[in-house]
Amino acid sequence: MVTTFLDFRRKEVISVKNGMKIGYVDDIRFHTQSAEVESIVVFGRLRFFGLFGREDDLVIPWKEIEVIGEDTILVRTDEIQPVKRTGKGRLNQLLS
To answer: Model pTM?
Structure first.
C-alpha cells in the first residue's frame, strides 16, 4: 500500500493493548540521511480550549506500529514517550 503524508495524518492511532484511542498522526520524524521513518507524533490534547497550551506530545517509535490500515494505525503502547512542549499556552503568552 502506498500512501501520502496527508492520508497518513487522517489515520486514527489506537492502542492494541487496551483499545484506547490515542489520537491522530500529526507529524512524522525521520532521519534525513537514510530517509528512514523513526517515529510518529500525536500532538497532546488542548488544555481549556487551547488557552493553557497542550498536554505533552506522544512520540510512538515506528517499531511499535503493529498494523497500518485504511483508517487506523494499531500500536503497542510499551514505548510511547511523552515529549514536553516548549511553547506556552495562548493565555500565558498574553499575560507575559
So the answer is: 0.71
